[in-house]
Every structure is written in C-alpha cells, then in structure tokens.
Fold:
Amino acid sequence: MQKYWRTGEPYVWATGAALSLTLLIALTLIVVVMINGLGVFWPDDLEQATLKSGRTLLGEVVKREPAASGEGYRKQYKIGNRDIYGLDFRWVDEADIEALAQPADAFILEREEYGNFYGYLQSLDVGGLAPESSSDDAARLFAAHERVRELKEDVEDLEDAVSGLSYQLENIRRQLLEAEYQGLGPNHPKVEALEREQAILQDDFRQLVDRINSETRQLRQYHATFTEADGQQRDIALADIVRAYRPNQMDFVQKVGVYLSKLKELFLADPRESNTEGGLFPAIFGTVLLIFTMSLFSFPLGVIAAIYLREYAREGLLVRLVRIAVNNLAGIPSIVYGIFGLGFFIYGIGGTIDRLFFPEMLPTPTYGTGGLLWASLTLALLTVPVVIVATEEALGAIPREIREGSLALGSTKFQTLVRILLPMSSPGIMTGLILAMARAAGEVAPLMITGVVKLAPTLPIDGNFPFLHLDRKFMHLGFHIYDIGFQSPNVEAAKPMVFVTTLLLVLIVLVMSSVAIRLRNKMKKRYTFGTF
Amino acid sequence: MSKTAPPEIKDPIIEVEHLDFYYGTEKALHGIDLLFPRRHVTALIGPSGCGKSTLLRCFNRMNDLIDISEVQGNILLNGANIYESSTDVIELRRRVGMVFQKSNPFPKSIYENVVYGLRIAGVKNKTVLAETAERSLKGAALWDEVKDRLNQSALGLSGGQMQRLCIARAIAVNPEVILMDEPCSALDPKSTSRVEELIGKLRNDYTIIIVTHNMQQAARVSDYTAFLYEGHLVEFGLTEQMFMKPAKKQTEDYITGRFG
Structure:
C-alpha cells in the first residue's frame, strides 16, 4: 500500500480528475448554450390540439414534462397570437386533449409586432401584386409578400435619406445655437445663410416624410385575413409580415432555407419587439467595435507602462509597490470601474469638454454623457493590468545575454528595446492582449453606466463625417442578454434569444481569440530562443 | 602590487591605472594596473570569482548596467579615459566589441544578425551592408557554411556556428578591441578548436582580450597572460614565460592545477 502511494499515481489521478472536472463544466456550458441556441431558428412543425372542453389551439410544442398531478404528461405550446390571447405560451395536460392533428395548411407568420401568428389563410386582398389567375391563395400570398418586401426596402432607403437629412439639420441647429451663443444677431450674414440652408433642408425633409407616409399607406392596403385555431379572424397587412411559411408541408431543404434566412436576419437586421425578436446586428457591431477601441487604448498604455516598469524604473520599494498595486487593480470589481468611469470620464472629462467646446449645447450634454469613447476607456482601465503583467513577464523572460549582446554592439537602450526586446516579447504581449479582450468582451456591469443602451437609434459608424462617432451610445451583446433575459416584459418568449445572444457572444470571443492566438503562434515561430 | 608589465609593451592600446571596482560595498577589484599590447591576444586567468570577468566588462563599460556598481581609477583607450563623463558609451562599445560566454544570436536571420551593429549605427546602403556581412562572416570562418542560407534564422545554427556568428557580428562594426568572455566554455572540443583557430587569425587585425578557465586554451591562443586572484593582479607577462617559469608561487600552483 505504501508502495502504491510512493509511486505518486494517486496524485496524478487527482490532478487529472481536477482537470477533467473543469473541462466538463466548461463543456456542459458550451453544449447547453449550443443546443438551445442553434435550435432556436429551426422551423418546428405546428400541432393542432382539440381539447375536451371543445376549444382548439394551434402551436409549436416547446416542452413535455410529467404533469403536476403526478399522472401523465403535460405539454407546453407556443401559441403566439399575442394580440388575441395576451400570452404566447400555454400548458396543456395531455389528459385534457381530445385529438391531435398536424394540419398541412397551418401558417406561421412572423410579424413586425406582437410576435408570431399561428393560423390559417382565409382570404387575400393584394390588388395587382399577384395575378388572380393562379388559383392557389397561398402561392399568391407568397408572391405578393415578396413584392411587398421589395417595395418596403425602397421605403427603408427613403428612411435612410431622412436620417441623413436630420443629421444635417441637427448640425445646422448646433451652428445656429453656437452663433447665438457668440452673440450674433438674427441679421448677421452667417446666421441668415444658415437659416436659408435650414429652410431648404426642412423643405426636403417634409417632402421626403410625406412621400414615405403615402407610400407606406399604399403598401398597407395589401392585406390578408387569417383565422386562428378557434375561428377568430384577423386582418394582417402584408407589410407587417416578416416571414410566412407552412412548416407542416415543408421538406428538409425548405426548412434549411428558412433556418438560413433567419440566421441572416440575426446577423444583419435590427432587433424588434423590444429586442426579443429580429436581428442582433447593432449589438454585434457595438461589441466588436467596443473591443477594438478598448484595445486601442489599453494595449499601448499597458505595454508602455510595463516597458517603463521593467526596463527603465530602478528596482526598489516604489516599483514593488506599483507592481502590487497593478496586480490588485485586476481584482477590483468591475462595477467600481464603471462608477469611476462615470465620475471621472463622463462627468469630469466629458463635462469639461462640453463646457469648453460645446457650451452652446448645454444643458444638453455632448460628451458629458455615456458613449462609446467613455465605455472603451473604462474597459481599457479595467484590462490594462492584464496587459501590464503579461508584458512585464514577457520582457523578463528574455535572457540577459540577449540584451547585453545588443548593447555591446553599441545600440542604445531604446534601439535594443525596439529591435530586439519588443519583437521577442510579442508572443507574450499578445497573450496579454487576448486575455484582456476576452475579459472586456464579457464585461457588462461597467458598460451599463458608461454608454450601453437597450436600443441605439444609430450605429457608432455611419456615412456622416467624421464617420466614427465615439460620443454615441451603443448596443452590446452582454447587456442584450441581461436586458432581454431579465428586463423584458415577456421573458418566456425572449428565452430563445437569450441563448442565441449568449452563443454569439461566446462565438465572437472565440473568433477574436483564435485570430490573436494564430498571430501569436506566428510570432512565436519567428522569435523562439535558440537552445543548445 | 606594483606594475608588473613587461617592459617590451611600447604601444599599449588599453592602460588600466589603479582600478578599484565595487559591487555595492563589496570590493571586487583592488588597484589593478595593467597594459594591454596592441594587436595581440591577452588572456585573463584565475579561479572563479577572482574578478576577471568584471575587469573585462570594465573595458566596454558593460558594468554600467549594474546599478550598484562603482568604478575608481582610470582605463585609457588609446590614451583617452573611458570613464570620463564626456565619454560616449555607445561609441565606446562600437570600438570595443564583445563575445559572450553563452552565444546570444538575436532571433533574426543570419544576415540581420551580422549587420545589426551597422543598422543601429544608421547604415542603410545595401551594398555596404552586404559587403560587410560577407567580410565579417569570412573573417569569422563561417561564410562557407552559411552563404546559402543567409536569410534563415540564426537560431537554426549549431552552438559552435552561433558563437562564430557572434564573433562575426562583433567584427562587423570594425572594433579595435574584441573582448571574449569564456567564448568556448559551452562548446564541444571540435567547435572550440575552430574558435581558437579563428582567434589565431584575428590577432593580426584586432586586439583580443580573452577570459578563460582553460589553461591549455590560454597557453594555446594568447601572447600575454594576466593572473588574477581575489581581485588582485598577481602576475602579468608573456604567456610562454608564465607557463614555463612563473615568477610567483601562487601562479605556479594555479597553472599546475594545485588549486583553483
């Protein structure tokens, strides 16, 4: 027995078990997220259940579990039709079900508002959009719907033009305020020129809005009447329908088509129904942009600070204290950083910028409010210790002979640093950056008070000069999860989106990290130490 | 200990005048007086910790990198004191090259390693760089082995080749003096003999000061030898004389391997 212990085998087993446990937990998390996240967009079949009470319901089966009474099972249906029933979900004891059917002509309509509609097509009023000759109403619906989507895209282009105009108008309004602040009277030529320009733009603006309104009215004429399972009828404008399909008569390939189109929507479209449906494009964009701007601030700052600490500062009590402080900085709760960001960056620096450069806009803040700039600076502060520690370690790992070799050839300390030390420590620095990016991607708390919003009206990058608007508020996947998961009025309906968003966030971190890791391995190959 | 330099050194390149060296409060060198003959090989020998490496590193002021070090006394290079405050250390290190105990090629190509000294000095002319690389590699007897793979990483060379590359790198900037700090201690016998051959070749153009633990090596490669013990210079003289008939008992004991 003693011999068995002496072999050291139990310790190997213990360490192995600890590792497997960690991996298992991580794997479980990923698998749960993947199963739930990937399945969300798959078009499930519709089931019609006739209850013993005589009522009928139509929906997707979401869950099946033992009934509360202890006998039999109960099913959860997603019945949609929020505007009629008020609730999207319903539990039914299997014992109460009289008959089940899978009607081939049952429709799923994904709508701009009120979530999904489940029902049957009754009649169609699409004017000349689809030829009357084809007798099948459903085929005519699909054709007309496609046409309406195209027309709607034209209207959306007009809306883009409107937002461009309103941006210009806002600029003029600011210049007018500025002129007023400078004490220029209404007769000053500059003011008059601005007002003339404003009048022209406002005229354009009105005309455009009128055109949008009339086109939208015209578009909304096309509508279809649907009946839900119990016979109630609803008129639904084609313009309100995002997607219409009959899952019960679709084959695998068609379902894949719907799945892909939903995936495309996820990546490229804006969210709707208070973020619980639609796409995540603004949140994805905001997250990636935030991480980039954060790296832009934290990376140089951390690397330069570490270089000073390791290469120039005289080793002593002060440097040791700084090092301890830096390490402790990494352990501060992130919400504290958020509050610091709010107090120092937003109210302190942002407020000062407003007073000095945008006094005409006050009390409306320009920089004195949350925005991408302040959020990324706050995150940079949060991640800078990681970069410092990693860079210091990487520099410290370079053998003394290498530095001396360079110095002995008559290079200055700076030349040695730039030509030898930095390239050699780049893999280590990259590791720090990867850790920093991963940490930043997962932070939510500090962002909530430094610039993240539930729904941003505009992206931080657009076609208007100066293209990158760091003062704008933005959306973020991490906050999105919190928002739709816990702040949404319809949590149950939002659940699939929580999984999808989580999956996406994990995916983004994964993609960014693997790019960085690839880069690091490339550098490692170039700068490995020679041994002999 | 008084000056023990043999009288025949008429044109010394380095003159050490009463050099004291401290690591913090610890005195590592005690009043060293030495003359190093131009274009000859001088070996510094002595047991571990006797201060020979410290002395060597005084010649290109490598000891400046140690914060707590302090130097008293003078070292003259061609008659000018290198410890004067006006001395340009960068310029000094270009004139006094160094080869280290552990070969330390940079993680760059062989070519870039050789021309590193020129690049940091601001030389951009490609022909100059290429010519210097060839001359230096030939000077270090490495050209034939690497001429076809100049752009490959220097880290792929063997230990002996690496050390010769470091020598090539040192002579590329055309120094007056080359300091060698136990250049062969990490090499196998075959590589060692190649480096020794190389030293024999270089002595015609450069002044070489070599620190070594290997008595045979000192006897083989050097013209003059200085024996240090516990920070003191015990004896300095022609190598031949010193190994055949040392003036001091201590020297004899060390050379014959009775201690050290």
